[in-house]
Amino acid sequence: MGEDAREDPADAAAAPPNPEATAAPSGSAVPSGSDATAEQPGLERVKFFSDGVFAIAITLLVLSLGLPKGTTQSNLAHGLNAIWSEYGAFAFTFLLIGLRWLTHLVQFRHIRSYDYMLLALNLGLLLVVVFLPFASKVLADYPNSRAACILYGASMAVAGIMSTVLWRHACRTPSIIDPDLDAYMQKNFLLRWLTLPVFFTIAIVIAAFVPNLWWARGVAFATPLVQIGFALRSWHKGYHNF
Hints:
Elements lengths: L1 H4 L3 H6 L4 H4 L20 H18 L15 H7 L1 H26 L6 H26 L4 H26 L11 H27 L4 H23 L6
Helix pairs in contact: 4-6, 4-7, 6-7, 6-8, 7-8, 8-9, 9-10
C-alpha cells in the first residue's frame, strides 16, 4: 500500500498545473497593462469625436483670412501687406488650438474610463473650441478694439478652465485616471494647463484698464512659453510622457 500511495516524479511533472494553486493571492497588485488599466468601451468614440471637432475648428481659422475689398493685380502686394492683423490672429489661434488639442491628447492618454461628468466637461470644452475661430476673426477685423481683445481673451480663458476642470475631475476619480500616473505628473499637468486661464484672465484685466493693448498681448504671448517651461521641468526630472 505504501508503494501505491507514493507519487511517481514523472507523473507529477506531466500533470497540468492547478489553476487554484497558481492564482494570485487576493488583493495582490495587478501588473501594468492588464484589464485593470484597460480602456472602458466607448472611450475611443469620445477621442475620435473630439479630434474631429478640433480638426474642423482649426481648419475654419483660414476663413478669417481675406484680401481687402477692391484688391486687384496691380495693388495685390499692398493688399497682402494690409492684412497683417489677420495673419497674426490666424497664426496665434492656430498655435493655441493646437496646444488645446495636444493637451486633450495627453489627458486622454491617461484617462481609462469616463462618467457623465467627464462627458459633459469634454463637450463644454469642444463648445468653446468651435467658438474660437469666430473670436479670432473678430480680433483680426478689429485688432485695436478693446472689446475684441477681451472677447478673444475670455474665449481662451474659458477653454483653459474647461480643460483644467476636466483634468481635475479625472484625477479626483480613481476609476477614471490611469493608476500608473504618479502624483507629481498629475500636479505638473494641472499647473501646465492652469497657465492658460490664469494668464489670459490677467490679459483681460490689462486690456480692460491699460490703454496700450500690447501689454495684454505680451501676457497672452507668454502663455505657451510658460507651458513649455513646465513640460521641460518634468522632462528634466526624468518624466518623458509630455
